[in-house]
Amino acid sequence: MYFLLLIYILTLFMILKDATILNYGMVKSLRWSRLKQKEKKEFVSESNLENLPRLFLFMSVLREQAVLEETINYLLQMKYPLEKIKIFIITSEREISEAKANEVTTIEIADNITKNVNEEFGIELIERIHFPRVDGHKADQVNYAFQRVYEKYRDIADECYLTMYDADSRPDFNSLLYIGKVAAKYYEEKNYYPPVLQQPAIYLANFNKVNTYMQIEGIAETRWAFGYEIYNMMTQLKRKNPILKRLVYCVGHGVIIRLSQLKSIGGFPCPNEDVPLGNRLSMIGVPITPIPIFDYSEVAWSVSSLIKQSAVWFGGGYQFFKDVAFIIKRKDRLKGISFLTLVLHGIYVILTWFHYIFHFLSLIILSVFYQLPEIAFISITSVYLDYGLGTVIVLSHVKEMAEWINNQPIQLSFFRKVYFILISPLRGLVRGLGPLVYFKNKLVSKIFKGQFIYSKTERPT
Question: In DSSP terms, which residues pair with 55 in a beta bridge?
């Protein structure tokens, strides 16, 4: 009983910590975003285009026939001097090996787009780079392309950025100009470009097209983006006390990293390229600057796809031990209490994938077998302070978020909002299924001695 009670108390603490820190962080990040919108018009004006860096837009694709052309056309509408931008579409041999007979592949579509766009603009605005292996992950694809690009632009790598977008990304049309202006201002003040910037995402792009649970997921992911990702980026430089250090991770779509910085860290970590990259940068003290101009992103289109996607996300977190082993050998890493604090934070983040499942298992056993039903009230109150309150905060700001991304706000009735709040804690339980799928896949690959390849989150055709 005492062991179960310990699990119950520890997981309750984790839930209450999220209820406090995440929701507080979201309020602070929303306020920061609101204030930054006032600077937006000045930053994205067409005047003063001096010192803008080169931007290389990387898009790693696999079976993206349905959306690739639309996405490229969207990106071409973004404001930035054409001579300082280039789009790289990164395809894979894996798609060819898995293609059905007579199926038109993303490779063929990408070639047509490349040819047509380059002819229309009269410059090489798009280049397709083909990853020649059937194995490997997204990070392997991107690293292959990065090495080729770095070799070509090695001499000006301090002035060039690799910017990652997904095939479903819909960043604000002013995003690139804002990014370039922020980098240019930084350069004017410090005589070098910032090492890493991050464009956050709002995960409501397909909100009206998915089922109720996936709508809850979109709300939860948006809450996490503001309450954890943006908040930690905002506060990282202010945390002088080493005990208060926190990992700040990158998000694959919207990360903007200087070519020279990416080269110095050894490229993108594999098999996950985003969260581990942020972990490694945090452990060597490299700041990640948030850009208050948003990418409008989709959530997975079904619960089954979400669970598979969560397995991939958990893999990125679980990869943390490899990140520590990689960084601990470096002379430029943080030392002493600062490094230890980040290691402990990384372990804690891994445990947060399981805390809802373990909490409710311990609650059920303690309530049924040890006659402690009164603790159910404590648990229910706590989870609604966590996800319930978080959902309230998101829903009360969706109109404002829509203005930030120049989109129509989501229209929800009062009763629909109440329903979302009531079922919101389910997300904590569903999230815990991802690690189970991850370990199942790892076990199967080990038994059959095959390479463990993450599955792709498919989009509807």
Answer: 85, 161
- Rounded to whole angstroms, the Cα distance separating 274 from 277 reads 5
What is the model's pTM?
Answer: 0.88
Asked if 407 and 296 touch (Cβ cutoff 8 Å), the reply is yes
Alpha-carbon torsion (331, 336, 340, 341), positive or negative:
negative
101-105, 307-311, 362-366, 404-408: the lowest-pLDDT one: 404-408
Would you say 298 and 168 are in contact if contact means Cβ atoms under 8 Å apart?
A: yes
Q: pLDDT value at position 176?
A: 92
Q: Residue 288 belongs to what H/E stretch?
A: strand 288-290
Q: Are 259 and 160 in contact (CB under 8 A)?
A: yes
Identity at 237, one-letter amino acid code: L
Summarised one tens digit per residue, pLDDT across range 237-269 is 777 777 788 889 888 888 999 999 999 999 999
Rounded CA-CA distance 57/389 in Å is: 37
The answer to whether the CB of 224 falls within 8 A of the CB of 285 is no
pLDDT in tens, 30-50: 999 988 887 776 676 656 778
SS3 annotation, 157-214: HHHEEEEECCCCCEECCCHHHHHHHHHHHHHHHHCCCCCEEECCEECCCCHHHCCHHH
Closest by alpha carbon to 457, among 275, 317, 308, 298?
Answer: 308
Q: Which residues contact 314 (CB under 8 A, 6 or more apart)?
A: 353, 434, 435, 438
Distance CA 80, CA 259 (A): 19
- Whether the predicted pLDDT of 452 surpasses 60: no
Contact status, residue 36 vs residue 292, Cβ threshold 8 Å: yes
Closest CA relative to residue 257, chosen from 248, 267, 247:
267
Residue by residue, DSSP assigns 99-122 as PPTTPPPHHHHHHHHHHHHHHHHT
User: Is residue 231 a contact partner of residue 198, using CB atoms and an 8 Å limit?
Assistant: no
The SS3 assignment for 54 reads strand
Q: Please tell me the predicted confidence (pLDDT) of residue 292.
A: 87
- 120: tokens are 């229309």
- CA–CA dist 180, 174 (Å, integer): 10
Cβ atoms of 278 and 154 closer than 8 Å: no
What the block records as the tokens of 140 is 């392997």
What distance in Å separates the CA atoms of residue 325 and residue 94, rounded to the nearest whole number?
A: 30
Judged by average pLDDT, the poorest of 148-157, 233-242, 377-386, 431-440 is: 233-242
Strand partners, 295: 171, 201
